[in-house]
Specification:
294 residues; Rossmann fold; globular; HRR_RAD51_Paralog; Rad51_C
Length: 294
């Protein structure tokens, strides 16, 4: 497993954009995960929309009217959510909205982001937190977002073991677990050994389901990658005009409780509940202008 610790890395530096960067390279040594507060420098200008004194809602809301209307009140802790999109930025935005809402719901709320493709960018998350908080609180909020970077599926499994151990040692905090680009590592494994990779995926999702259920962890898969689909053989999207489908489906990841997919057009977004195991709102969808998701 490869993890990044910008605090200890000798080649870590601050870029002109205010982000600490380091060169990527393979390592066999596990390192302390970084957190978003270490990687981001707060700008001076931000608009206050609300504070972080609210108590936990039984379900987690995104604070976006369009998205929350589709989710019918939010997402219950203890479930597994997959967010996929034809445009990577859409799934990233929804993931960041959930992170921002979660860390502002309680002073002890914790988030762990497992970045499987070295593409998780703190800046979009920071902008979302800015809009929902005050400038002086942003850095402290981001300090509670831990980032673990892995570069293969084996590292993902090792990360999950560590996360479980951490939660077991302190189960009093509400946890949000985000896997950013999990399909990247899964695709590589499937190409090398499809049978073994599918077995590893099954084991991973069973372990993730147990962690979510036993400790009330909300687990979120943020997926931008979609692949060409065989419309006749596997039609999960509601709209036949869509020639793409998410990598994770009810066949490859049957334990996912809720799957939200975002279709993009030039001026509009269509959010669709592709699968829902509990509230029965599968195939529900909403349409909005592209700017409404910002």
């Amino acid at each position: 497993m490869v993890q990044v610790d910008c605090e200890d890395a000798s080649n870590c530096r601050r870029s002109s954009a205010g982000i600490r960067t380091m060169s990527r390279g393979p390592s066999t040594e596990a390192r302390k995960p970084a957190n978003a507060g270490e990687l981001w420098v707060c700008p001076e200008d931000a608009q206050r929309l609300n504070d972080d004194t609210q108590q936990y809602h039984p379900c987690l809301l995104t604070r976006n009217k369009t998205i929350d209307s589709l989710l019918e009140g939010g997402i219950q802790y203890g479930l597994q959510l997959c967010i996929s999109a034809t445009d990577n930025s859409d799934s990233t935005l929804i993931g960041n909205l959930l992170i921002s809402s979660h860390i502002q719901a309680s002073q002890t709320a914790q988030v762990t982001v497992v970045d499987t493709n070295n593409t998780f960018d703190v800046r979009p998350l920071a902008r979302v937190v800015e809009r929902q908080s005050t400038p002086e609180k942003v850095h402290a909020l981001l300090e509670r977002v831990r980032i673990i970077r892995t570069f293969d599926f084996e590292g993902v499994g090792a990360s999950l073991d560590k996360i479980k151990a951490d939660i077991q040692s302190d189960s009093s905090h509400k946890h949000l677990l985000v896997f950013d680009g999990l399909s990247h590592g899964a695709r590589v494994s499937l190409k090398n050994n499809a049978v073994q990779a599918q077995a590893d995926l099954d084991t991973f999702f069973k372990a993730l389901q147990a962690l979510s259920t036993d400790y009330g962890v909300l687990s979120v898969l943020v997926e931008g990658f979609v692949q060409n689909r065989d419309i006749e053989a596997n039609h999960e999207c509601l709209f036949h005009a869509t020639e793409l489908q998410p990598f994770f489906s009810t066949n490859t990841a049957p334990s996912i409780d809720l799957h939200v997919h975002v279709h993009s057009t030039q001026s509009h977004k269509v959010l669709e509940v592709m699968a829902s195991r509990h509230n029965g709102n599968s195939k529900k969808w909403v349409e909005c202008e592209a700017t409404e998701l910002e």
